[in-house]
Amino acid sequence: MSAAQEIPVPAPDLVLREDRVDYTPTAHSVVRSRHRAARLVLQWGHPALAGDAALLVSELATNALLHGAIRGRLFRVHLALTASALRIAVSDPRGERLPSLRRPDADDCYGRGLLIVAQLADDWGVEPRTVGRPCTPNSPCGDGRTCRWARTPQRTGPPEKAATPR
């Protein structure tokens, strides 16, 4: 019988900067959340990611507004910057309506938002809403069901994945 091996568990990245704002489910809130995200990412020293962050917040906030809104309930936009990632999470109060990628027909007016998210983000997904846990870049949002995006900050040298629409 061999001795038990310890498997190292990576420590979560320390959150360097963080912002969390609740918005009323209105079109104006989508605009406000997009502008806030771009401004913060610029202030946090990652100007190359500001446009993508704004677009992703806009798409995810629009989804929260159109598909996750409940009268009298807010949606949340949470940005967290670590040394290795910028994580953007948008949560809404609907747990029964989980977003998924779909391929809209050429003449469909809607249905491309998550395709845009998938193209710009290094990773995205949907997580169930939980309560009572703090949100960190390496765990689900403590209060949101849709932690959807993690993005590596711009580095010198070639990027791991292009952050431009195709």
Description:
This protein is an alpha+beta fold and about 170 residues long. It is built from three helices and four strands, in the order βααββαβ. The protein has helices at about 25-45, 45-65, 115-120; strands spanning about 15-25, 75-80, 85-90, 145-150. A four-stranded antiparallel β-sheet has the order 1-2-3-4, with helices on one face. Helix 1 (about 25-45) packs antiparallel against helix 2 and helix 2 runs antiparallel to helix 3. The longest helix is centred in the middle third of the chain and has 21 residues, at about 45-65. The protein is globular, with a radius of gyration of 17 Å.
Low-pLDDT runs: 132-166
β-strand amount:
15-25%
Which outline best applies? globular
The helical percent reads 25-40%
**Number of beta strands:** 4
The largest sheet, given as strand count, sense and whether it forms a barrel, is: 4 strands, antiparallel
Oligomer: single chain
Widest sheet, order of strands: 1-2-3-4
Task: Detail the topology: elements first, then pairings.
Layout: E1 17-23, H1 27-43, H2 47-67, E2 75-81, E3 86-91, H3 113-120, E4 147-151
Antiparallel strand pairs: 1-2, 2-3, 3-4
Helix pairs in contact: 1-2, 2-3
Main attributes of the structure:
globular, disordered C terminus, 166 residues, alpha+beta
Task: Produce a short descriptive summary.
The chain has 166 residues and is of the alpha+beta class. The protein has helices at residues 27-43, 47-67, 113-120, and strands at residues 17-23, 75-81, 86-91, 147-151. It is 28% helix and 15% strand.
